[in-house]
């Protein structure tokens, strides 16, 4: 079993690093593990070569991240299950349950505890922002295609830089800000040429993206004390049940007939039970595979994979749902992803120069 002190975070303060992955389900990127941890694998993995284990984990990461997007889109837009808040609440309940088993029984990471009321309220504040971001992201899938959703999500670094400046007065180098221009230009192209553009879907997707960026900045401010920092899997363990409790009254008030609809649907079509349980399970696997990819590779690899995932998810969704795309829309998406890559490189050079 890995001892607790092995997981002390060594990465830079999130206030000083505004690079955020495009994936709406990532809670926190743990520090790159030591060589000793990288070489250690689970009992099953010990019988396989390290390269094969890493390849399987990366493959699982791609499948879970793309799978949850496609399942959400299918449920909300095609299957007729128009309850994004309740669906998000199921995701949170699933994450809470699986996290409890993974940490307390499988011991994938050491258990950390909330040490004070102050720390609890800090986590609760992050949880509120997290709920807003995830609900907006799921709601947007009801109105806009997955490909357009991913294009908007790729602009997360732009919003992170804005919030870092507004909240912490942190200024980036001119090169970093210049790299954000293609990010904005690309999404303008994609928006103007989107055949299935929906203004409300666009707004809530922007809300989801900005919420994800805001959470990363606020987390860097609130959880600065070393004793208060939690590993990403422990943070998920505490945030998920809080999120479920926050979402429950909103679901009952806004989606009042969701329980009756779900029960009636289950009686006439039991497949919905499989869909909901499978969807909630995959939502947890997104967080688990994020942790495993970082454990077996690095945080930088996860960021690179995030860019590739956005493009692959857009491509797969077009094949599955047959939503129309335009050359201008594809070009806009490509420009945005290229801008994110340039931004990441500019951030790395800025750090090297600062040191």
TrEMBL record:
Transmembrane segment boundaries: 52-71, 83-108, 120-141, 147-167, 174-190, 235-254, 270-293, 327-344
Superkingdom, taxonomy of origin: Eukaryota
Keyword Transmembrane part of the UniProt annotation: yes
Domain Sugar phosphate transporter: 53-344
Membrane topology per record: Multi-pass membrane protein
Subcellular location: Membrane
GO cellular component, one term: membrane
The keyword Cytoplasm appears for this protein: no
Descriptive protein name: Sugar phosphate transporter domain-containing protein
Principal localisation: membrane
Pfam family, one: TPT
Organism, scientific name: Hibiscus trionum (Flower of an hour)
């Amino acid at each position: 079993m890995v001892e607790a002190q092995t997981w002390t975070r060594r990465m830079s303060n999130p206030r000083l690093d505004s690079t955020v992955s495009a994936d709406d389900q990532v809670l926190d990127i743990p520090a790159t593990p030591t060589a000793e941890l990288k070489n250690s694998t689970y009992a099953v993995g010990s019988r396989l070569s390290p390269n094969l284990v890493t390849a399987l984990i990366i493959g699982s990461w791609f499948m879970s991240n793309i799978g949850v997007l496609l399942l959400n889109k299918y449920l909300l837009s095609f299957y007729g299950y128009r309850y994004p808040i309740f669906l998000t609440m199921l995701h949170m309940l699933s994450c809470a349950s699986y996290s409890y088993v993974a940490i307390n029984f499988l011991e994938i990471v050491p258990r950390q505890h909330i040490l004070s009321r102050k720390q609890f309220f800090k986590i609760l504040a992050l949880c509120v922002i997290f709920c807003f971001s995830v609900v907006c992201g799921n709601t947007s899938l009801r109105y806009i295609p997955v490909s357009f959703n991913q294009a908007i999500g790729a602009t997360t670094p732009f919003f992170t830089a804005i919030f870092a400046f507004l909240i912490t007065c942190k200024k980036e180098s001119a090169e970093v800000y210049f790299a954000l221009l293609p990010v904005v230009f690309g999404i303008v192209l994609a928006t103007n040429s989107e055949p299935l553009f929906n203004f409300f879907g666009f707004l809530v997707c922007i809300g989801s993206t900005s919420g994800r960026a805001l959470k990363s900045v606020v987390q860097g401010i609130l959880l600065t004390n070393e004793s208060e920092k939690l590993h990403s899997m422990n943070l998920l363990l505490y945030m998920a049940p809080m999120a479920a409790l926050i979402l429950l009254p909103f679901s009952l008030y806004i989606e009042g007939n969701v329980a009756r609809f779900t029960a009636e649907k289950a009686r006439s079509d039991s497949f919905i039970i499989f869909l909901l349980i499978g969807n909630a399970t995959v939502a947890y696997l997104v967080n688990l595979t994020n942790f495993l990819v970082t454990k077996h590779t690095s945080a930088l690899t996860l960021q690179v994979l995030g860019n590739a995932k956005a493009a692959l998810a857009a491509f797969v969704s077009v094949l599955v749902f047959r939503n129309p795309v335009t050359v201008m829309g594809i070009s806009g998406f490509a420009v945005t992803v290229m801008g994110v890559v340039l931004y990441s490189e500019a951030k790395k050079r800025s750090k090297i120069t600062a040191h």
